[in-house]
# Entry
Amino acid sequence: MNWYRFSSPSSFYPLAGRLIPWFAWAAAALTVVGLYIGLSIAPTDFQQGEAYRIIFIHVPTAWMSMFLYLVMAFWGALFLGFNTRLSAMMAQAIAPTGALMTFVALWTGSLWGRPTWGTYWAWDARMTSELILLFLYLGVIALRSAIDDPRRADRACAVLSLVGAVNVPIIYYSVKWWNTLHQGASVSPTGSKMASIMLAGMLVMSFAAWFYAIAVVLARVRTIIVDRERGAAWLAALPEVAKA
Amino acid sequence: MNTAHTVAVAHAPVSAAAGAILPGVRWALARDIRLALRSRAELAVQLLFYVIVVSLFPLATTPERTLLATMGPGVLWVAALLASLLSLPRLFAADYADGTLEQIALSPYPLESLVSGKVLAHWLTTGLPVVVLAPLLGIQYSMDAESLVVLSLALLLGTPVLSLLGAIGAALTLGLRAGSSLLALLILPLYVPVLIFGAGAVDAARAGLGVAANISLLGAGLLIAIVGAPFAAAAAVRIALD
# Structure
């Protein structure tokens, strides 16, 4: 099977359309299972009481927020390297979802901070770097919306997201050395300090966040394809376009 | 302004061999410094902006000496960031508006070297004055002698990074609507590590701790920026000219 075939918008558009329901339903099912584990099976935390349960939203969105930035930069790099239009469209489609994940991570973190640290906001390393990550996402989105020519916007955003991707670890460590209040990471590749049922709930929710992001990005990339390729003959021949 | 551009461009040795990096840096540096010196009032205004921002903070907070000494390094650094941001359009905007930038990009010198020269000129005319002026303003903030030395050293290492990173943003936003506020959104988050290490060095000095870690990190950041930023900025210039 030749995967490069799908680097063309005309062949990717129907593929994305077929994949979206699978990822969307998987995301919905995993959310139900994950929230069930998180909200009713997982035991109450002996230190933080019920408040810790926001972890099942907070940690998956925080992971996704950082991961999506790298994915966006990856598509940007592919676009700069191979000049494949679809890569740039993917990067464009990821930015709003990444910004949303970052915002949700910040919001839930602030709600979690209130009962456990006694404050909605602290200038803690991870919160601050997450806030800066949000600015980076908003910068990419704002740069794209300020440029009328889509080709220039693609390339400018690719350069900006690559510069940002190089900076994200530097920002993270600079802020970390500056101030740290946040609890250390509970999950690491070598082992986990959490009860296994809590971990299971969190991992299920992470996959839910992952599949949600894929479904939404694919849906958005389809609208971007329709918008950008509106002159193309293959698009006009599509039943849903021909009808409208 | 226009005559200055034509004169400078006429001096460009268009026959230079391709791949000549240092001559490219030297040419762009000489040209931009000459242009900057012909609009000295503009440079003075940007420096005055720095002085005024720094002077506003005690008015807004407190004239109390110990608090000012605590705040001083941060205020001086934030003002340096803002002054750098304000001066960034100088780098490419005028050349872009009158078409000079396209001629520069067509020259046989590698664009990366020309961008490096322009960034160096930008730092010498806007960053270095801030470094020189900072200890004077630090005295207004009751900072002690050791802190002032560390502050100057940190600014000396940090402000070139601001110019280098800023060049990327300045090139990306060339000719865009709301270019200057967009530039702030793009560039200020990237300035954060410089701000943290720079102000952190002075804080460490004030607390009697070693400043070597912060200064080394600033130096490392400067080296990375020198190696990487010209390529990104030159790519951004090519995008803008496309």
Notes: Chain B has ten helices and no strands. The radius of gyration of chain B is 19 Å. Residues 2-8+18-241 of chain B form one domain. Chain B touches chain A through 28 residues (CB under 8 Å).
